[in-house]
Structure formats: structure tokens, C-alpha cells
Design goal:
By secondary structure, the chain is α/β, with parallel strands linked by helices. It has helices at residues 17-28, 48-55, 71-80, 100-105, 143-150, 163-168, 183-193, 219-223, and strands at 7-13, 35-41, 60-64, 86-89, 95-96, 116-124, 130-134, 160-162, 198-209. The protein contains eight helices and nine strands.
């Protein structure tokens, strides 16, 4: 009998096979191995499925969707099919460092005391050159209001959330077109408003790729 995965890694993707190979590979090469990988494919027209099949790893689960332009719908499908105690998120063009999950779950703090765990992120360009370090957090006693009035301080591909908290509170990413590019920010606000405790690790454990196709790079749309 297989062991229930502690962590379900949800990766939405669309026509991004080249980046997807790297992102999935960064999960499969983790020094911490108790996870499943849930790839939600928005009906890609490239060789996405072939890239996944080539890994020949039974921890990868593949789901097809037509999300009608809402990456939130893809992430929510991943959450619904997650069997782990924790759900981690990774966009298909981002990349985890090998010891990310070890640092998050095998360090000296008790993960049961938190509903969300995150870390810092390095932003890089298409040449792999570092642009800046994104410092996530910190958590405060007034975290909901801090998020609301000072903006998002969490990166989706750095975030791991407790499955039971999402289920108990019927939480998910907002699939409305009005929330495209900020659906993650909305979820963190919802969690904080319900009293979720966030743990921030002051260490860069992943990379965020900045390129012309990022939704979040469409600055005016994102701001509105």
C-alpha cells in the first residue's frame, strides 16, 4: 500500500512544455520526497503530455481542463484532486531549489502550528540573470490589514497551505475574470481574514521567471 503524500504540488500549465520540464524536474529532484505532482493542463497544443510521460514517475498525476482564461480554475481543480495534508503551488515557468521542501517541513519549527508556509524568491530573467530578491512576509498580528493596505507579500510558487484549512472554510482561488493576476492575493486575504497563521522562512528557495508572457507582467491590467 502506497504512503499518502504529505504534500500535493499543483502545477497549472498551458503551451509551456519547455518551462514545464524544468519546473516538474525541480519537484522530482527534491531532497524531500513525500509528495505527489498534480499537473493541470489547459488543453495545451504543444508536447506537454509527452514531456510529462517522459519522466516515467508515478507521483505525477495529469488532468485536462479548459479554464477559459482563468488560471484559478486550473489551481482549484488541482486542489480538489489533492490527497496531501498540504497543497503547494508552482507555476510551470517557475523553479524550486532542491532543498525547498526539506527547509519547509524538516526544520526546527512545528508545521502544525501554521496554516500557510512560505519563503523568499529570486526573480530572474530569461537568461537566468538575477533581477531582485522578493522578500515575502513578515507575518504580523494584523496580517489581514497589512495585506489589504500594503499589498500582496506572498508569492504563489513559494506558498504551501494546509488542506484541512481550505476544506473547512470552503476556500479556493476566485475564478472571476476580474481577479485574473490577483486570484492568489485574494486567497491569501481570505485565509488571513479567517485567522490563518503564516510562517515565512527568510531564505530564497525558488526562482520566479520574468518574461513577456507572464500575466503578472501586464502591469496596468494587474494594478486595475
Amino acid at each position: 500500500m502506497s504512503m499518502k503524500p504529505l504534500i500535493s504540488v499543483v502545477i497549472p500549465t498551458y503551451n509551456d512544455a519547455h518551462h514545464l520540464k524544468r519546473s516538474v524536474g525541480s519537484v522530482l529532484s527534491q531532497s524531500y520526497s513525500n509528495f505527489e505532482v498534480i499537473v493541470v493542463d489547459n488543453s495545451s497544443l504543444d508536447n506537454t503530455k509527452a514531456v510529462l510521460d517522459a519522466f516515467k514517475d508515478e507521483r505525477i498525476k495529469y488532468f485536462l481542463i479548459n479554464n477559459k482564461g482563468s488560471i484559478a480554475a486550473s489551481r482549484n481543480l488541482g486542489i480538489r484532486n489533492a490527497s496531501g495534508s498540504w497543497v503547494a503551488f508552482l507555476d510551470s515557468d517557475d523553479f524550486w531549489y532542491k532543498d525547498k521542501l526539506t527547509a519547509m517541513f524538516c526544520s526546527d519549527f512545528c508545521s502544525e502550528n501554521f496554516e500557510a508556509i512560505s519563503h523568499n524568491v529570486l526573480t530572474v530573467d530569461v537568461n537566468g540573470d538575477e533581477l531582485r530578491k522578493m522578500v515575502c512576509g513578515p507575518f504580523t498580528d494584523t496580517f489581514y490589514y497589512d495585506l489589504l493596505f500594503t499589498g500582496n507579500r506572498c508569492s504563489t510558487s513559494a506558498m504551501v497551505v494546509k488542506s484541512s484549512f481550505l476544506r473547512a472554510n470552503k476556500l479556493k482561488f476566485n475564478e472571476s475574470a476580474d481577479f485574473i493576476t490577483v486570484e492568489d492575493y485574494g486567497l491569501w486575504l481570505d485565509m488571513a481574514n479567517l485567522g490563518a497563521k503564516f510562517k515565512f522562512i527568510n531564505q530564497a528557495l525558488s526562482e520566479y521567471l520574468v518574461h513577456e508572457n507572464n500575466n503578472s507582467s501586464k502591469v496596468q491590467f494587474h494594478f486595475e
